[in-house]
């Protein structure tokens, strides 16, 4: 797997170099393979605001700045970026619509593995309000976020940051 990535990376670099170099000087060196797909660009603030507006109510009126601040409570244990590592808790990219306890490479508690539901905003809201009572036996040592507005802002933030598409 790794060598494939490296090879396609080199091909992409070569394509780039060929594109930038003086035209016609190296006709034989152009790679024949298609260049690798470019990495997904980071969302701009304007794009994030546009995604926010597509969220179902009440999350469409969430405050992304406040949500980001609330995520400070989570980031000692969770990364949120696409392909981010697992820490004490699993990477959260794409968590909405994902079956609970199913992120590859993370060792979940039996409670979360057996939960059998998909994460949506309502489930996450209940989980974040009080993980212990929502799913007894889970291993997330987090006391809960009691402030409802902060949970809304946080959920809106996570949705926008983790690849939410309307309808999910
Ligand atoms: C002290 C570390 C810690 C903190 C802080 C923490 N978590 Fe977790 N989280 C975990 C662990 C560990 C698990 C896996 C629990 C299990 O297997 O029972 C988890 C699981 C989850 C899951 C389920 C993921 C899945 O794939 O099913 C979600 C969603 C989640 N956390 C969100 C959050 C959010 C949002 C915050 C911040 C408000 C937060 N967590 C704070 C450690 C933490």
Which distinct ligands sit in these coordinates? heme C
Shape: globular
Q: Tell me the name of the CATH class of the domain at 45-161.
A: Mainly Alpha
Distance between the termini: 30 Å
CATH superfamily of the domain at 45-161: Cytochrome c-like domain
Helix and strand run: HHHHHHH
> Which stretches are low in confidence, meaning pLDDT under 50 for 5 or more residues running?
6-31
CATH architecture title of the domain at 45-161: Orthogonal Bundle
- Radius of gyration equals 21 Å
Measured by DSSP, the beta-strand proportion falls in under 5%
User: What is the helical fraction, as a range of percent?
Assistant: 40-55%
What class do helices, strands and sheet pairing give?
mainly alpha
Largest sheet descriptor: none
What do we call the CATH topology of the domain at 45-161?
Cytochrome Bc1 Complex, Chain D, domain 2
Strand element count: 0
User: Mean of residue pLDDT?
Assistant: 84
Task: Count helical runs.
Answer: 7
């Amino acid at each position: 797997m790794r060598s494939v990535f490296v090879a396609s990376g080199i091909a992409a670099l070569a394509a780039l170099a060929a594109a930038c170099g003086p035209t016609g000087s190296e006709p034989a060196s152009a790679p024949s393979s298609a260049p690798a797909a470019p990495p997904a660009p980071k969302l701009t603030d304007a794009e994030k605001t546009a995604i926010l507006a597509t969220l179902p109510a009440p999350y469409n009126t969430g405050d992304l700045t406040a949500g980001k601040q609330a995520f400070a409570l989570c980031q000692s244990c969770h990364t949120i970026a696409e392909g981010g590592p697992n820490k004490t808790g699993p990477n959260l990219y794409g968590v909405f619509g994902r079956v609970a306890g199913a992120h590859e490479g993370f060792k979940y508690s039996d409670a979360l593995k057996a939960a059998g539901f998909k994460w949506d905003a309502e489930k996450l809201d209940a989980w974040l309000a009080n993980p212990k009572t929502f799913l007894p036996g889970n291993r997330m040592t987090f006391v809960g976020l009691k402030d409802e507005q902060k949970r809304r802002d946080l959920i809106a933030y996570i949705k926008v940051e983790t690849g939410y598409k309307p309808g999910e």
